[in-house]
Amino acid sequence: MTLIKSISGIRGTLENIPGESLSDFDVRQFTLAYHQEIISNYENQIVVLGRDARKSGEHIASLVSDVLINEGCDVIDVGLVTTPTIGICTKKLNASGAIMISASHNDEKWNALKLLNNNGEFLPPHEVSLIIKDIKRSSNHSSSSEKGEIKKYDNALEDHINLVLSQKEVSKEKISSSSFSVAVDGINSVGGVAIPKFLDALGIKKIKEINCEPNGEFAHNPEPLPENLTEICNVIQEGSFDLGIVVDPDADRLCLIDENGNPFGEEYTLVAAAEHLISGISKPVTCSNISSSMALKKITESYNGSYVSSPVGEINVVQKMKENKAHIGGEGNGGVIFPSTHYGRDSLIGIGLILTLLSERNITLSALKASLPEYYIHKTKTTYNKPLDKVIAFFSEEYSTFNIDLRDGIRIDFNNSWTHLRKSNTEPVVRIISEAQTLQKAIELSNKIISKLQII
User: Do 168 and 303 belong together in one domain?
Assistant: First the structure.
């Protein structure tokens, strides 16, 4: 049983035990807190509600709707949508906020409430802290007061696709003329609908759909890591495809497979999208979190640009991007943030930018990867139930001669390599991420940290 409250939302397993899982009681309490702390400040109270295809989503959506309506708030139900879709829809419909029901890369035993503001962006930390305060909430709405209404809106995905297609950096004409053949793994969630529809809108005719039925029965571990992508890799190796596309259950993360059936690496999704964008900008500014590849910094500097970093978490990246007026940003988990469309991770804009790049340069995905700075990331996680203060103090002393970043756990920078240890926002684990110029070196860095962690 797990219930995690963080800047990534209210996330938990589904045993329905109050205070220890994402129970019906907790869903109601946090929805009420969201309304009282955020939505009630608006004269016209409207919340957009959407979900991924998890089987628990419909029940949770009904609980959320019931609370909001009883508080006099109108609900716009957009049904099964991606997280970036609901973000874009919130702003388009001038809503007060939105709740997306999705536990992202977690498996079916989990679900979550992702809380958005009136711009369709994740709430900043200080607002999240108001919502997750450990107090029992009760309704401030009189039973005799007017209730809210539920309305349906069916054009959210179409609006999202049209917005991406309207960007000058995405060329439907060039993509269509390239006659790409694409395999898509939608993990049997909302990406299985959104990605093929977007590819069709780009003029791509050869689309192989894998696990694209939005029934919530995830065909493999939903986190788009290489070890979970064997099915689509095999399909590409046995067929004739230019690339493969994989997304997580709410399709805010994008992972690519090259024409040979080899994973492109989710940490290179943002790098590739940025390569297309910043090559045509004078003094570009890019941003990623401190667990992301050095390759973004390297290509940015090669175009005489500036790179900035942030703690892990989409809202942290967004805040840093806004402060520095970054042209593009994101996270090394396959998340691409393009401010011209939306300040949120979006697989659709990532696809559009990268396919345009492949079309313009007339190269394969493997050739694109070979042209980018070469680094290897090793990601692992371990249970650690003690406070991290002692761990951070130990490693700060142990590696005091190196550059150390304490904004989010501890990151230690070596010569052309780094390692980062932090508490996860989405699972009850500690993550250890290392990057070096060889995979073996990255693994060695992680193992060294883990071995020291066990004796602290």
Answer: yes
